[in-house]
Amino acid sequence: MRFYEFGNIDNPTVFLIHGTASHWKLSFGQVVDGLTDEYHVVCVAMDGHDENDTTEMVSISDETDKLEDYIQKEYNGKIYGIYGSSLGGSIVGKLLEKGNVCIKHAITGSTDFDYMSGLSAVICSKIATHIFYKYVKTGEIKGILNLLIKSEKSKKYLKDLHSGIYKKITYKTLYREYYTDLTMPIADNIIPEKTHIHCIFGMEEDGDKLVNRYKKHFPKAEIIGLVGLNHEELLFREPEEWIHMIKTLLNHGEYNYYGGTQKINGDLTYNSKSVS
């Protein structure tokens, strides 16, 4: 695991963690400069996802431990914020569960928190790796992947998303990433005393499933659904708006996406839309 730091060390520190088969620069290269006027930014490069490090990934649990150790050693166990994109949010969730580091704001982006065990987990991980590895190498939406992605809008987005994929990832790392994330449980009812938790997702995703999982794991979290958007689409297609969202949340503000927002705070659900 490597760490790439930007901005003034005297500013509040915010960590950014990329997702499956991605890369710190491909995920966050467009947003780092927009954050460093207010924050010291640390981009995390997971094992097996960085051309400067030939280490293969062992497990998502191992990545969590490495990040936890780094925060404890370099930041005395306290950071201002952390953002986990997709699978990166699983690491955020595990850090919150363990409770060994203090985080003021923890944000997950489109994290599904899937969990499975036994033979089912092995089979699903092998199938997912086989399908996704072809997409990683070619960027093509063919075969089973084409059948799984129903709408043309989603297929187009997945093609565009290929620009954020780390093409040098190995089959071994990708499989371990899928399998160990799928089999790593996250506890229910995680309510850190001093942490504000924000769970972001696109309303074009399986919203009901995601909201139920967010409520299950983080019952006090602010859950924000972005109308008309897909998996991490705000980050990859609207980096300036993503920066605005992150800064708003880190400053204890109320974020409203201009296309519409569905929010859940505790048992209260409401819709909002920005008016220019």
Automatic annotation (TrEMBL):
Keywords: Hydrolase. SUPFAM superfamilies: alpha/beta-Hydrolases. Gene3D superfamilies: alpha/beta hydrolase. It comes from the Bacteria. One of its GO terms (molecular function) is hydrolase activity. This is Alpha/beta hydrolase. It comes from Clostridium beijerinckii.
